[in-house]
Amino acid sequence: MTPVGRDPDLGSVLNLAAARARETGAGSVTTGHLLHGLLAEGQNLGLQILNAMDVAPGSLTAPDTPEPPAASGGLRFSAAAAVALELSVGEAIGFGHNYVGCEHLLVGLAAEPDGAAGELLRSRAVDGKAARRTVAAAIAGYAHLRATTADQSAPPALLNAVRAELAPLVQRIERLEQHLPRIP
Q: What is the number of helices (H) and of strands (E) in the chain?
């Protein structure tokens, strides 16, 4: 069972980022490596957020630009990657979530001002503010879908269209809910 506070997809993303840093011989895990991990994982909410923002994840190539490490000794996060991760945690807290997910990492990468990944994302109109709004809209859409599923007065065609559009988000959130503790 996954501990509360850790999204299983984010763990995969961090492992993929570290592996990429080792493969490229980098001295630190950079924002580019974090973006690479997000893209390479392939099934996370961050990718769905990019799609919702009209940015095809396949059209992005994570930069391999070196960034100075935050600390010396072994493979560490670069200063920019550490800031992006801190921003991710802040976003999760701001949303009232008890986990840090790939959607929060996307916002953190886009909002971090010095890293190569943020520069790339902002060049594609994915800045921190826009990403945060898209995550909020996705969460609100999910909540609305859950509320209207019981309401049979909605036109079936409209309801089916909304369900089809939100199905990937619903599946993702339901997977995350499976890892939350049950409250009696």
A: 8, 2
Q: What 3-state DSSP class applies to 3?
A: coil
Q: What is the pLDDT of residue 2?
A: 35
54, two tokens: 């009209």
C-alpha–C-alpha distance, residues 143 and 150, integer Å: 12
Start-to-end Cα distance in the chain: 19
- Taking the C-alpha atoms of residue 22 and residue 163, their distance in angstroms, rounded to an integer, is 41
**Tokens representing 59?**
């059209």
- Looking at residues 111-119, what average pLDDT do you find? 94
Q: How many CA atoms lie within 13 A of 38 on its CB side?
A: 31
User: Stretch 97-113: mean pLDDT, rounded?
Assistant: 93
* Strand partners of residue 78: 69
Distance CA 32, CA 9 (A): 17
Tokens encoding 145: 């879908």
Long-range contacts of 126-131 (CB under 8 A, 24+ apart): 126/50, 126/53, 126/55, 128/87, 130/53, 131/49, 131/53, 131/106, 131/107
Closest to 141 measured CA to CA, from 161, 155, 171, 162: 162
